[in-house]
Amino acid sequence: MTLRRDLRSSMTLEVSDPTAFVLAISSARGVPLAWEALTISVDGDPVAVRELDEEPLTRLQLFETTPGTVRIDYAAEVTGRAPAAAVHPIDEIVYLRPSRYVQSDTLQPFARDTFPGLGGARLVREVSSWVADRLAYVPAATSPTGGAVETLESGEGVCRDYAHLTAALLRALDVPARLVSVYAPGLDPMDFHAVVEALVEGRWVVVDSTRLAPRAAMVRLATGRDATDTAFLTNTLSDIRLLTLQVQAEASEAFSDDPDELVELG
């Protein structure tokens, strides 16, 4: 039987001035879709949307609005699995660099002291287990401006904080690592989810130090250096207020998840 995953997300926003938006809530390029639909309106009037691709794989939807209440609805049915993410020569340069929220340069001495003599898949497993044990999942603890260093110091956070710290430790130890936003069937509480992809044995494998959802069920949305590149919504020209956000993701079969297994997003 072909694996099917049903995805839905919706949100409403209050906009007080003309605003430009960028969305990253659609399944990534290459995800096999039976169908999908995206609708955006302001006070009930439809808004035109244009789409751009951002490497690697991310699909962005751009639109502008006048003041009012903005409603965004996305739904899709994924049939089957996406092909394994390609590995490009530039990946080992881009995803080893420190970035805004992944301060791998600052954490390098700590990482080397904490994980001496490890490499490859064993190192990735040890880093993921260490972050899972070290951090407490506390929704109210996250900060939109805090990165891996702040998360290490506080010892708590949400999925993006787990992912930033995991990626920072891996990059500090010469393992290319990047953030991926996903729909995650089985996630509780349900929301957009952030995980890490690490380049291991010539392939991108998914690392989720929160251990909150089975990795084999996840569907890729946006991929990048950190939350700067993978945010589900960004805007310019005006402040906005998020009024509601709902996310649903369901799979046609149940998945177990062994944290030690190397799993690719599909």
From TrEMBL:
User: Which Pfam families does the protein's record reference?
Assistant: Transglut_core
In terms of SMART domains, this protein maps to:
TGc
Entry protein name = Transglutaminase family protein
Check the record and name the InterPro entries matching this protein. Papain-like_cys_pep_sf, Transglutaminase-like
Q: Where is the Transglutaminase-like domain?
A: 151-211
